[in-house]
Amino acid sequence: MNDLRPHPAECPIGVFDSGVGGLSVLRHIRAQLPHEHLLYFADSGHAPYGEKTEEFVVERALAVTAFLLDHGAKALVVACNTATVAAIKAVRARYPELPVVGVEPGLKPAAAASRNGKVGVLATARTLKGEKFLQLREHISATTHAEFLLQPAVGLVDQIELGDLQASKITAMLEQYVSPLLDQGADTLVLGCTHYPFVRSGIEQVLAAHDRQDVVLIDTGDAVARQLGRLLETSALLRAAAPAAPATLRGFTTARPTALSAAFRALLDLDPPVAAADV
């Protein structure tokens, strides 16, 4: 009897976030691994994670991972800083054979890029309170002597999820959250949430208004895609460079599919099929 199951390398990569922010990571994955099938899961019906308890985020991460595995995922990208900090340990413990890549605030590259040792970190409150983040900060501070200036950006994810990246409310929030970091002398700024690269131009406008165009912005999406490629190669799960069928992309969401479809079009200029997920 023939085995009709696809070869594991032909299976898709699952990518998930609390909402549309992980599309900034998906963009890097598609650029670096263009032959891979992809599943994107936006848990927008339970967003934002940054204001939820750690127990809640762990529960959601495990539920979404199970959903993506049911849809054939061969690897998982936790494209959410908050979920990485709160839940990636639990995901790896539940699925020890699954290649898993998380997103961490780029503290190490930021410390290396900083000229004066003062690094601003813009992130959700949950990320900045997480044990994993605090341990990482302590370790890198001890080895590099960098000073990390932490700034929770309360409500910014909610506004980005609405899709109007030029909204006056977003502009006001960016000024409110970035300015104190500049006042404290930060010469490097970590975009510590996958949503934030989508308002990079707004952050650059704040820098220009303060005559601080020299500030370096750190986005770790590129590093995540590179690490994913390494894991797939090590696990013999890379899809062929010249596959018989083109790579596919599908979206799932716990909110309105039309909202995720609109985000795909507005943020990535893509129009993949999107379905509701009762998870």
Q: Please state the CA-atom Rg, rounded to the nearest Å.
A: 19 Å
Domain count: 2
- Tell how many strands the DSSP assignment holds: 10
Order of helices and strands: EHEHEHEHEHHEHHEHEHEHE
Number of helices, where a helix is a run of at least 4 consecutive DSSP H or I residues: 11
Architecture (CATH level 2) name of the largest domain? 3-Layer(aba) Sandwich
Strand order of the largest sheet: 4-3-1-2-9-10
**Largest beta-sheet details:** 6 strands, parallel
From the 3D structure, determine the CATH topology of the largest domain. Answer: Rossmann fold
The stretches of 5 or more residues where confidence is low (pLDDT under 50) are none
Structural class estimated from helices and strands: alpha/beta
Give the overall form. globular
Q: How far apart lie the N and C ends? A: 35 Å
**Beta-strand residue fraction:** 15-25%
CATH class designation of the largest domain: Alpha Beta
Mean pLDDT: 93
Helix content range = 40-55%
